[in-house]
Specification:
This protein is mainly β. Helices cover 0% and strands 62% of the residues. It has no helices and 11 strands. The strands form 2 sheets. Strands 2, 4, 5, 6, 9, 10 and 11 form a 7-stranded mixed β-sheet that branches. Strand 5 and strand 6 form a beta hairpin. It is elongated, with a radius of gyration of 14 Å.
Length: 120
């Protein structure tokens, strides 16, 4: 059994900051990429940012310079530091992790989602 559990999120004023965390647990051989998607009301889910096991990252243009993803491999945890938040960042944020559960078998696991609301 593998679980991916998020924490953080909430309500913040525009220009404020929030930090999300996401921890994977269970029968895990290794983790490749971990990252975050978000889905705003009436919109499709979009990729926000991800980080590979070697620490390399990629982010959507809309969050570059404001959001920072980091990772603690020993804790199997990924963090999303969100600064200078804007009302358009309001969405449910979903963490994912691509996990090797048995030799050469990889599955993608998702967190339950956490609401981020930015007021103007």
């Amino acid at each position: 059994q593998v679980q991916v559990v998020e924490s953080g999120g909430g309500l913040v004023q525009a220009g404020g900051s929030l930090r999300l965390s996401c921890a994977a647990s269970g029968s895990i051989r290794s983790i490749n990429d971990m990252g975050w998607y978000r889905q705003a009301p009436g919109k499709e889910r979009e990729l926000v940012t991800y980080i590979l096991s070697d620490g390399s990252t990629n982010s959507a243009n809309s969050v570059k310079g404001r959001f920072t993803i980091s990772r603690d491999n020993a804790k199997k945890t990924v963090y999303l530091q969100m600064n200078n938040l804007k009302p358009e960042d309001t969405a449910v944020y979903y963490c994912y992790a691509r996990i090797e559960v048995t030799s050469s078998r990889w599955n993608t696991y998702w967190g339950q989602g956490t609401q981020v609301t930015v007021s103007s």
